[in-house]
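Subject: Sanity check before I submit

Could someone independently write out the structure tokens for this chain? I want to compare against mine line by line before I put it in a report. The sequence has 255 residues.
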Amino acid sequence: MPARRNFRHLRILAAGVFCSLAIVSLCSVNYFVSRSAAPSEQTFVINALGDSITYGSCTSGEDSIYVNQVASALGADNVNNYGLPSSPVSNTVNPALSPQENQNLSFLERYPSMSKDADLIFVFGGVNDYSLNVPIGEANDSSVHTFSGALNTLFAGLVEQYPDSRIIALTPIQRSDRTGSNDAGYNLEDYANCVTSIAGNYDQVDSIDLYHAPELNFSTEEASSAYLADGLHPNDAGQKKIAEYVLGVMAAATY
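---
Independent answer below. Compare away.
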């Protein structure tokens, strides 16, 4: 079986790639430079579990999606994209969708069928739980119908199924089309903070806080126009900003 890269190696690669971003844009990073950091017999696979942002809604194509940009910069051999529009983390019915569309909609229903050879797994969700008024629940919750419980169930399941992989949970980003409390009384920030808090309970799970990153605050009219296609979904420029930020945090190993 081909050798697998450990996560320390990913940090080294990210640091090298991020340094190059200071002189050139992410999309023009030399692919050979990142791949040459490891022997050719090694493989590096990324799974990306998410919603419409990971799926790439409102982008010009697959190459613009944040995870594909990150993967290209790190020299990944394969990216498995499990993004699905309207997908919540929790097992919550979306009344705007048909019964068929609600099947396998949640992260919890989809993660067991992901490829098992991933070295690195991104989990990027929460915005649909906010929109669907999913209760936050308690920190030690195990209910699949609360956000905390769903995250606990998801992270515990990923740790069990991927004992040698690294898992990085990304918080929701700020949006401009809907702000304030949902019908359950929670702000999007509450869901972002919950991702960070719950991830902190699992040694194998790191989190990257996109919500509070100033450079990813797309809620203002000017930033929304530049980086969001519709007030929620990042356009190509917005996806690039997310990719750059993720690589920067990985390089700094501040999570």
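---
OP: Matches mine. For the report I'm noting this point. The chain has one domain: 7-252.
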